[in-house]
């Protein structure tokens, strides 16, 4: 081994042992063999001073964000671990708080571009990860108008598609919980379900956002008079692509083999504070591309998993282009 390489490889061995300590004995054996091989242990290869151990890792950050829902005032989720599968043995990352308790996050506090970090600057071995699994504690709950209810997740964990951890790169991913799409309150059951249908994994480097104002006259049209509170149920639906047939823009029902409508990829609540002059909306973590925005004042009638076209309609539409790492302004003026 050439001069200086020993120090480099010692740093590498310490890093990979620390990162994979929860992955099990098999992974640690593999990492030890890798170090010996790189040092010339039987392979004849050599490591020079120019080689940097940082190139074996991605600097991994993992955030949580949310698009809200009308019928809940709190959606509190408890997280303890995040598991990454693929690229060898599974890696389990502890995300508990400083006291070792599950991390408690109210998703409704994370609207628009707001986020909470579950994992920050974790040295993740580079490679392909095929799946992310996020166990959700049974202590999770939802506060609604009729009380506080347990929040259940199918199989007890959120399952997401994977990603590629790039050697030597800083990478940030965000899990976007679109609660209008994923929060389901089945009749006759004493719990609320968080379904995977409204949960997206976004690479922050490829994502941007949209925000804008909404004029008062749009939200007080005759079509909105079926509700007693004009500030309630207003939302902006986001559809992929432009030049879409407006009559084919659908609500948030599940797709079917005979479905010809476009379904939204995201939904934002229009927030009205003290007056309609301050009505606004915001969406974060959308992949760069072209989108059609559709404004409705009847979003509270849109039940996930059912087709509500007989009661649901849009007031107006707007086309926008989202660029990575930028916020596009799209106002719905009077």
Structure description:
There is one protein chain. This protein is mostly beta strands and 334 residues long. It folds into three domains: 47 residues, no CATH class; 140 residues; 121 residues, Sandwich (Immunoglobulin-like). The protein contains four helices and 21 strands. Helix 1 runs antiparallel to helix 2.
Number of helical runs?
4
Please summarize the sheet with the most strands.
Answer: 6 strands, mixed
Q: How large a portion of the residues is in β-strands, by DSSP E?
A: 35-45%
**Structural class category:** mainly beta
Counting copies of identical and different chains, the oligomeric state is single chain
Name the overall outline.
globular
Unreliable runs, pLDDT <50, ≥5 residues? 1-52
Mean pLDDT value: 81
Helical fraction equals 10-25%
- Total strand count, please? 21
- Going across the biggest sheet, name each strand in turn: 5-2-8-9-13-12
Q: Topology, pairings included?
A:
Blueprint: H1 5-19, H2 25-38, E1 57-67, E2 72-79, E3 81-85, E4 91-94, E5 103-106, E6 116-125, E7 127-135, E8 141-144, E9 147-152, E10 157-165, E11 170-178, H3 179-182, E12 183-184, E13 192-194, E14 199-203, E15 207-213, H4 216-219, E16 235-240, E17 266-269, E18 280-287, E19 289-296, E20 316-322, E21 327-329
Parallel strand pairs: 1-11, 9-13, 15-21
Antiparallel strand pairs: 1-6, 2-5, 2-8, 3-4, 3-7, 7-10, 8-9, 11-14, 12-13, 15-18, 16-17, 16-19, 19-20
Helix pairs in contact: 1-2
């Amino acid at each position: 081994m050439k001069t200086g390489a020993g120090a480099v490889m010692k740093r590498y061995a310490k890093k990979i042992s620390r990162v994979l300590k929860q992955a099990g004995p098999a992974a640690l054996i593999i990492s030890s063999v890798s170090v010996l091989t790189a040092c010339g242990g039987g392979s004849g290869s050599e490591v020079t001073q120019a080689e940097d151990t940082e190139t074996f890792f991605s600097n991994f950050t993992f955030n949580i964000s949310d698009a809200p829902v009308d019928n809940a005032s709190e959606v509190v989720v408890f997280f303890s671990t995040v598991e990454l599968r693929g690229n060898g043995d599974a890696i389990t990352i502890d995300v508990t708080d400083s006291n070792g308790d599950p991390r408690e996050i109210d998703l409704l506090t994370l609207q628009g571009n707001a986020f909470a970090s579950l994992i920050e600057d974790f040295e993740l071995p580079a490679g392909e990860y095929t799946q992310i699994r996020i166990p959700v504690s049974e202590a999770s709950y939802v506060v609604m108008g009729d009380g506080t209810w347990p929040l259940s997740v199918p199989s007890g964990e959120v399952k997401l598609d994977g990603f590629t951890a790039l050697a030597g790169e800083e990478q940030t991913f965000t899990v976007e919980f679109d609660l209008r799409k994923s929060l389901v309150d089945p009749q006759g059951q004493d719990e609320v379900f968080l379904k995977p249908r409204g949960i997206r994994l976004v690479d922050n480097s490829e994502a941007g956002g949209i925000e804008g104002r909404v004029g008062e006259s749009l939200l007080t049209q005759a079509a909105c008079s079926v509700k007693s509170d004009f500030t309630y149920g207003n939302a902006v639906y986001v559809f992929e692509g432009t030049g879409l047939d407006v009559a084919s823009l659908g609500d948030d029902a599940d797709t079917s083999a005979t479905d010809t409508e476009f379904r939204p990829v995201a939904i934002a609540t229009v927030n009205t504070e003290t007056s309609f002059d301050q009505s606004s909306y915001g969406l974060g973590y959308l992949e760069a591309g072209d989108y059609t925005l559709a404004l409705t004042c009847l979003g509270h009638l849109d039940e996930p998993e059912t087709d509500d076209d007989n009661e649901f309609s849009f007031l107006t539409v707007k086309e926008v282009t989202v660029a990575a790492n930028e916020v596009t302004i799209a106002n719905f003026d009077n």
